[in-house]
Amino acid sequence: MASAPSGGSSGGKPRGSVREVKQVQLDGSVVLKIIKHCQEEGSGSEWVTGCLVGVVVDETLEISNCFPFPKDSTDNPREEIEYQKNVLKKLRTVNVDYHEVGWYQSTYLGSHVSREFLEAHVGYQRAIQESVVLIYDPLQTSRGALSLKAYRLTPQILTMMGASDPFTPESVQQARVVHSDVLVELPVTLRSSRLTSVLLQELPKSTTLPSNALLGLSSTELLQKNVQLLMENVESLQLETYRLLGYEKNISKQAQQKQQFLQRRREENERREKTGEPPLPMTDEAIEQESSLKPVVPPQRLEALLIGEQVDLRCQQISEIAGAAFAKLYLAEGLQPN
Amino acid sequence: MVSYPLQRLATPLMVLRIWHAHRYSSCSDVTMHSLLIHEYYARLDPNALFLTLDTSLKENSLQIRAHVKSKMGLPGKSEGVVFSPVPCEIVSYEPERVGVSFLKEAVEKPAPIRHDLQQVCHMAESLDRLLQQALEYVQKVLAGKVEGNPTAGRELMEAVSCMPQMDETKFESILNSTMQDHLMVVYLFNLVKTQLVLGEKLCKITS
């Protein structure tokens, strides 16, 4: 998993005043490198990650290079940071862009929104304000539709992550944060330099023929997988909701028990007054000690927010797929001789 | 002479890939300097390749060539080393081809990544163009203006016979059932999403 960027990213940050980044521009080599890395290393549901290097120009984040993270050093985050620092240093000596601006990750049918993803990206976005995370979906790409999306965290989520006791139901309600407030998608454009264009012209026809896989009519497998993943997400969401409901029930039950206890105490105290004994304390600590009523721990609502965002993303994906499928079906109908 | 330090970096990535022992130079001449650098790589892997491409585009092309080192000269007297070219072929796999085809459209100016539906429209348009071309060619041949090419004719026959011949009703039923599947899935997903949004709005109201 990607760790937070190495402190200071070996030099100054790539901007003067803070500007709002509205779109992301990728160099051709970045796209091909990411594809290659995922092809060679990613096997099925294992995720591959890497770092993005680039520069901020006006409102566009131009990503000019990227390099992959080695996979096995997840147990030692120090090593990862060292590796990152070294690579950036070497890039600087070779006189190319060396400011890190984000990271990329491969995903399996869009199920990347998880706690580790959030935490990894929070580190990046705190250190470099304009950083983005690029999500690449290898399955969709082998189907014929290049699936590269750029996301950032909203400022509300960032402030909430920084709070000391984040994501209790009360704080979430107060901040009025909804699941769609977690991630923001940025439009991505591709750019190829002059030399890349020359190379593209020179490539043999077999490598540059646009793949017709996208026109394939069979998307039932894809639908199946998506529905399965949605079911899992809904189950986890249900779990979270039960937890929340249980918490609220516990709170009300505890309040009742406390009331009962206090009532008994009052009666006891009145009785003691009559007999002249010292009254028993009615403070909170006494209540805790004597009635073994522990304060109820509020559940974390972060998971619920993330799952909500995940479901949202999946819905978007499915509507895209379905739209394309309808278009293809009508095409096929048009080609039939009748 | 750009990649020397970057190649060193490949060592931490050894878990990542097979050691690709080659280096590339941005001018197409082989010089003494390149021999020294090649010696370094030859130590790591005796089959080291030397890849050159011409970025100054002297002959209007990139001139991608690969060389291997081989000994030459008379044994015992004047021995030397020559870099002999090796046939070089570029291959790619499916996802890469998709990426490359997207990049091709970004040649003039930065192009946005198209989503599924737009991509299908785009491909439909290009398919239309190809069909038009094929049709024109066939008509010209029939009218006798252009001489028919038997291979082209055979390919066209194959393409046309690829269309699955099906009963009209059967095709309709398959079409309808697929569309219904998709519609159902879209409906389900939208239902879940609406419920989620509703739930959160309710929470906001009750707070």
From TrEMBL, chain A:
Residues 264-276 have a biased composition (Basic and acidic residues). The keyword Signal does not apply. Residues 24-157 form the MPN domain. Its main location: cytoplasm. Keywords: Cytoplasm, Initiation factor, Protein biosynthesis. It is found in: Cytoplasm. GO terms for molecular function: metallopeptidase activity; translation initiation factor activity. One of its GO terms (cellular component) is eukaryotic 48S preinitiation complex. PROSITE patterns: MPN (PS50249). GO terms for biological process: formation of cytoplasmic translation initiation complex. Residues 263-284 are annotated as: Disordered. InterPro entries: eIF3h, eIF3h_C, JAMM/MPN+_dom, JAMM_MPN+_peptidase_M67A, MPN. Component of the eukaryotic translation initiation factor 3 (eIF-3) complex. Belongs to the eIF-3 subunit H family. HAMAP family: eIF3h. Component of the eukaryotic translation initiation factor 3 (eIF-3) complex, which is involved in protein synthesis of a specialized repertoire of mRNAs and, together with other initiation factors, stimulates binding of mRNA and methionyl-tRNAi to the 40S ribosome. The eIF-3 complex specifically targets and initiates translation of a subset of mRNAs involved in cell proliferation. This is Eukaryotic translation initiation factor 3 subunit H.
From TrEMBL, chain B:
Residues 94-202 form the EIF3F/CSN6-like C-terminal domain. The keyword Cytoplasm does not apply. One of its GO terms (cellular component) is eukaryotic translation initiation factor 3 complex, eIF3m. Transmembrane segments: none annotated. Keywords: Initiation factor, Protein biosynthesis. The keyword Protein biosynthesis applies. InterPro entries: EIF3F/CSN6-like_C. It comes from the Eukaryota. One of its GO terms (molecular function) is translation initiation factor activity. PANTHER family: EUKARYOTIC TRANSLATION INITIATION FACTOR 3 SUBUNIT F, EUKARYOTIC TRANSLATION INITIATION FACTOR 3 SUBUNIT F-RELATED. This is Eukaryotic translation initiation factor 3 subunit F. It comes from Geodia barretti.
